[in-house]
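Provenance

Sequences were taken from public entries as deposited. Structures were produced by running a predictor on each sequence independently, with no templates supplied. The record for Ribosomal protein S16 domain-containing protein from Mycena alexandri is shown for reference.
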Amino acid sequence: MPMRLRLAMHGRAHYRVFHLVAVNQRARRNGKPAEVLGIYNPNVPAGQDHKTVEWSVDRIRYWLHVGAVPSKSVVKLLELGNILKPGSVYHPNSTEKKASL
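Predicted structure for Ribosomal protein S16 domain-containing protein:
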């Protein structure tokens, strides 16, 4: 069963919250995940000046180690959080992408 790390969309219109999930790659966007790895809230709450991301770094590294492939948007978040190095094999512009997987 090929696994993917992707964002599942939740919340109401104009106030979306995204769950970072490990899911079968053939499952629907909001289908039942194998595991919820984190929450990304792109909305800035009143009184704060930044977006929030809560995630389990150990579990994300585990899923990457066992072969789960992150989506493009998840790769961007993981690079911003220093979990993946810029230009990693998962990065969309990587030249060694197909050779090393």
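The chain is about 20% helix and 35% strand.
The helical segments are 57-65, 72-80, 97-100.
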